[in-house]
Amino acid sequence: MTAIQVITVPFDAGVEGERMGAGPDALIAAGLLGRLGLCHDVDAVRVVPADRWRAELRTTFTLHHDVAQHVRRALVAERAPLVLSGDCNMTVAAVAGLGTGRRTGVIWIDAHGDFNTPDTDPDGYLDGQGLSMLTGRCWTAHTRSLTGFTPILDHRVLLVAARDLDDEESLALDGSDIGTLSAQECQNPVTRGTALARLIADVDRVHVHFDADALDPEIAPANSYAASGGLQPDEVIALISELSALRPVVSATIASWDPSFDREARLGRALTEVIEAIALVINHS
Ligand SMILES: [Mn+2]
Fold this sequence. Notes:
With about 280 residues, this protein is α/β, with parallel strands linked by helices. The protein has one domain: Arginase, Chain A (3-Layer(aba) Sandwich). Helix content is about 40%, strand content about 20%. It is built from eleven helices and ten strands. The strands form two sheets. Strands 4-1-5-10-9-6-7-8 form an eight-stranded parallel β-sheet, with helices on both faces. It has a two-stranded antiparallel sheet with strand order 2-3. A hairpin with a 2-residue loop joins β2 and β3 (about 15). The chain is globular, with a radius of gyration of 17 Å. The protein starts with a strand and ends with a helix. Manganese (II) ion (MN) binds near residues 112, 114, 211 and 256.
């Protein structure tokens, strides 16, 4: 029986409980902890910054420090950290919490690249910059201050199912050493296997990043940024299970589900299936 530490971070761009910030609490309200509790020893903590003043950058960066600390505590308690977040960039905090003792790889499953920087993003949307931050391309004064964080090397990242990228973002991705696997390629065992082999070649352990909008919006849109195409839950589950046979999956972030786009909770149920599958392979060691 795996011991799991669920860490909920109910924020979207510094705002608590709105849009995708409503996702973590909605997953819990729909019974996620009970379902995980059938197979695992589950503990849960809900992270809110001590400072009541809210501002996108300040609040988000404060949450990074807090979440990294919760991840470290989970590992000391021999619990595998499972972060449920409104924002994708909370993966920066999860990876900081893992620390630098071993080589960490990240599989980033997302409809978007999250690969803008402040200098390529005309809309000023911090959460479109999470993968750039993770790989050391922006907000480095903040990430240097984040205990345990070191940028993830490009070749230790695999971006899966990304299909809605800005022009400059796309150019930056082409110029990087980040591996990519489209939703279509993910259905092909050969291309899937090649991409996973490249990801794990130089890593000891893997963090799974899953943005709900990686799923096909025909199930139901995950959020206001949903893009057509995408993965079915069983494809995600097969991918993660294959990955876990190659390297230990030590932690995960599940992000960006806005329940208001999903009135019948169809996407929420699909997401719960994915989370249950991740919990089954996750391993704190
Ligand atoms: Mn994302």
